[in-house]
Write a structure and sequence with these properties.
mainly alpha, two-stranded antiparallel sheet, two-stranded antiparallel ribbon, DUF4383 domain-containing protein, transmembrane, transmembrane helix, membrane
Length: 117
């Protein structure tokens, strides 16, 4: 199950990366999610790491979900206090995107069963 969630989230982040790099007029993905080239690259790196978790093992999928889930939870919390962090937009609708990603990935980490090695 963890690998399937990593696949789904990896594809979502890949879509966000492509939209942010090529189809973000005025710096807004879908007209309301603030984006920069740097944020699109972060989404692309996230997608690659999540897809790596999908293509390896269940244990790696859990580890990847744990790390990325905590990072996106931290970005969401930072977004409540600052609209930008290290040049990346973290405010506005990015808070929602980061919170959803954090909840799904932390559930993937803690809530899905692990397979035996």
């Amino acid at each position: 199950m963890a690998q399937k969630i990593d696949l789904f989230m990896g594809l979502v982040f890949a879509l966000l990366a492509v939209l942010g790099l090529f189809f973000a007029p005025g710096g807004l993905i879908l007209g309301f999610i603030p984006s920069t080239t740097g944020m699109a690259l972060v989404y692309l790196i996230t997608a690659v790491v999540l897809l790596y978790g999908y293509f390896t093992s269940d244990q790696m999928a859990h580890l990847v979900s744990a790390v990325i889930g905590v990072v996106y939870a931290a970005l969401a919390i930072i977004g409540f206090f600052n609209s930008s962090f290290v040049g990346l937009p973290t405010g506005g609708w990015n808070i929602v995107v980061n919170l959803i990603a954090a909840v799904v990935l932390i559930y993937d980490w803690l809530g899905t069963p692990r397979t035996a090695t």
